[in-house]
Prior knowledge:
Blueprint (H helix, E strand, L loop, with lengths): L2 H25 L7 E5 L5 H14 L3 E6 L8 H6 L5 E5 L11 H19 L4 E7 L1 H6 L5 H9 L6 E5 L5 H6 L2 E4 L20
Parallel strand pairs: 1-5, 1-6, 2-3, 2-4, 4-5
The structure holds adenosine-5'-triphosphate and magnesium ion.
Amino acid sequence: MSDQQRNERHKKAMEKLKSHVDAKVAAAEEERGLMLVFTGNGKGKTTAAWGTVTRALGYGYRVGVVQFIKGIWECGERERLEQDANLEVAIMATGFTWDTQNRESDTQACQEVWQQASRMLADPEVYLVVLDEITYMLKFGYLDIDTVRTAITNRPPEQTVIITGRNAHRELVAMADTVTEMQEVKHGFAAGLKARRGIDF
Ligand code: ATP
Ligand code: MG
């Protein structure tokens, strides 16, 4: 095949692709807040959520982040982004960690931070709400799915919500507009590599 033939073939393929994409863009008419779920065993769920937080803050929108697991680790994004007056972060203050699992105090701590979450989910001024690691709260029964479903369903129409954590409840997956499953191909941890500051947290 000559270079010219190759170029022509490429141009045709690109034209075809462009018409497909254009048709899809034209077909997408609805505009409202979304519900996204980042789940799966691979790395990147919380990172992707903070990436989206950064994106929203970049346009001057108000953002609420609720961290359902008591600062197991430090969190570089939080340190940096909290300087932005448009960001509010609520962290589960006491109770749940991977080490001390005490049903009563964990449930109490979870319910307390959920109050913050439900306030954000009811506030039309908040453009994006992140419920980081909330999947575990449902799994352990510290929070019930009906409560979460109702708050998400009734949120302001312009508000987007992101759920992160492994083993997302099937009802959350069913409700969501966009669900991404991070698949673990490899993780350095399995080879004995320590979580790295500024990279893993
Ligand atoms: P990240 O916060 O890096 O985006 P994540 O939110 O997808 O990760 P979590 O299950 O919340 O993953 O785990 C949080 C911590 O565990 C992070 O320090 C992350 O680097 C690490 N981690 C993530 N996936 C794995 C894995 N498959 N094996 C071991 N450690 C992991
Ligand atoms: Mg995470």
